Protein: Plant VAP homolog 12
Organism: Hibiscus trionum
Amino acid sequence: MSIGELLSIEPQELQFPFELRKQISCSLNLSNKTDNYVAFKVKTTNPKKYCVKPNTGVVLPRSTCNITVTMQAQKEAPPDMQCKDKFLLQSVVASPGATTKDITPEMFNKESGHHVEECKLRVVYVAPPRPPSPVREGSEEGSSPRASISDNGSLNAADLSSVSTTHVERHKPQDNSSEVKSLVSKLTEEKNSAIQQNNKLQQELELLRREAKRNQSGIPFMYVLLVGLIGIILGYLLKRT
């Protein structure tokens, strides 16, 4: 951090994680710890390569301001990843209540007697963030954990727990198949019992039909027998008379 009389600037160098054909940005934080309005202006030795927002502004008393510096996409990497570009941040006391519209180039002219603070910032290229490391072979999906053996030949408790858990999980399909088999067996028994009850009901129905037929055939025989007895009695009475 650069601590001047007017502004504190952080960081002291602009670090860009360099990548080809990609825009890269970094930030500057300006802190005004005075009771004055402070105007600032940012210059660079390579204005076509960088975009600074805002490049001018006013930091209110006891407040901060953030500046974003964007490097345009580069087609070639510099030799040895060294950059000679520089930035210059100038700051000066502004009139109370000043805004960005009130800033003029004359305010940063030292020859006019203005007290101008200057801070030089260099550009540094750093390596881009590394991608996440690949997953280890032992932890790939579908691979079963292996218990590790310590120097004395005994299994570690955590490894033993993982192995036993895997063993139980492998036997779950067998438990499910046994449940299916028992369910099928139960349904088969219920089906056989229903068939037996159906056969029994059919037999009882057949017996009832036979008894009904016998009763129907017995009624005419009794009727004939009764008529015959009456005829005999009438004949006997007629002979006596």
Notes: The helical segments are 157-240. DSSP finds one helix and ten strands in the chain.
